[in-house]
Structure formats: structure tokens, C-alpha cells
Design a protein that fits this description.
Shape: elongated
Strand content: 25-35%
Radius of gyration: 26 Å
Number of domains: 1
Largest sheet: 8 strands, antiparallel
Structural class: alpha+beta
Number of strands: 11
Number of helices: 3
Helix content: 10-25%
């Protein structure tokens, strides 16, 4: 009898534990990325040619000077399924837009993100089409994870920046950022001046 009473008492004491809540780690939605495929951008009158993803669309940049005709070659490469845009601004290198000043502006705009960046890499690239420049890879929760410029150093200068339409979170955006980096590299590799 004592043994049964002891077992019941131990069972009651063991069952009276308070419920302990264990928080689950945060998760992110799975992002389905399409297969990389490209189409030409070859509009008459534009000073450049390039290939861009079939899941992107080209729009005229009307946010700044492009709408009034002062910068008619400023365009956006929109990716609606990712909520991302690559803003492209083109300048002719001349007395009003000297190469050194354009390079300094591109560097300054990229390093503006150092407040939130963990790091900034600056790999230089050269293509078989005579295009060269720098891709600024910005790590951390910066507003723009990739910025770049491309030039021939004599006449053409193109600057680009990738932005997402959301608050930057490097962890959740990383799959899309890596995916679009491949597209940026393809874009720059196919860029030709007209």
C-alpha cells in the first residue's frame, strides 16, 4: 500500500510541472526563382545595348530628370515578382560631366551606405566589348546591396543601383540578392556602347 501511495505521489508531483514555452526560430518564406533567361534591349536612339532578364521589364525613369527630357536615357529595370528595381542613369562624358567627377560621385553614392553596411567589396570588371567598371557589393542591411558603374572612359558612363521595395533585411533578401547578382553580371557582360 505504501508503495502504491508513493508511486501516486511521485506521479502527481511529476505532472504538476508548469508548461515551458520554447520560442520557435524566425523563418522566411521560400522564394521561387525562375530560370535565368535574357532578352535584348536594343531601342533605336539609345547609346547602349544590353541583355536583361525575361522576368524583368524596362521602364523610363520619370522620378528625376528623365521625365522632362534632360536625361532621356535614364531607365529602370523592374522585377515586380521580387519587388526590386535596378535604377540606371546614363551620362555622356563631356565638359559638363567629366569622368573624374562621375567616378567620384559613383564612389560617394555607394559608400553612402556604410552607415548600415557590414562591408563593401569593389571588384573591377572588364568586358570584351571595351566596357569596364566596378561592382560595389554592399553587405548587411544597407538599402542597396549592389551598385555599379560601367564606362569606356571616353564618352559613355552608366551607373546602376539595385533597390528593394521593402525595409532592408540582408538575411531574408539574400536568396533574391544572389539571384539578381547573376543578372547584373550578365547585364554588364552584354553591355555595348552605340
Amino acid at each position: 500500500m505504501r508503495l502504491i501511495g508513493l508511486i501516486i505521489l511521485l506521479g502527481m508531483l511529476g505532472s504538476c510541472k508548469p508548461e515551458i514555452y520554447t520560442p520557435k526560430p524566425r523563418g522566411y518564406a521560400m522564394i521561387d526563382t525562375p530560370r535565368h533567361a535574357y532578352q535584348p534591349f536594343d531601342r533605336a536612339g539609345y547609346p547602349y545595348y544590353f541583355e536583361y532578364p525575361v522576368y524583368g521589364r524596362i521602364t523610363h525613369d520619370s522620378s528625376l530628370d528623365g521625365a522632362n527630357g534632360r536625361d532621356p536615357y535614364w531607365i529602370n529595370m523592374d522585377f515586380p515578382s521580387f519587388g526590386a528595381t535596378i535604377y540606371l542613369s546614363y551620362k555622356v562624358i563631356d565638359a559638363n560631366h567629366k569622368l573624374q567627377q562621375l567616378l567620384e560621385d559613383a564612389h560617394e553614392m555607394s559608400y553612402f551606405h556604410t552607415k548600415k553596411a557590414d562591408y563593401i567589396n569593389e571588384p573591377v570588371f572588364h568586358t570584351r566589348h571595351g566596357v569596364h567598371g566596378v561592382i560595389y557589393s554592399v553587405g548587411g542591411n544597407a538599402a542597396s546591396s549592389y551598385q555599379f558603374f560601367a564606362t569606356d572612359s571616353t564618352k559613355h558612363f552608366l551607373r546602376g543601383a539595385l533597390y528593394f521595395n521593402t525595409t532592408p533585411n540582408a538575411d531574408s533578401l539574400q536568396p533574391v540578392t544572389n539571384f539578381l547578382h547573376t543578372d547584373i553580371e550578365h547585364f554588364l557582360g552584354s553591355l555595348e556602347w552605340r
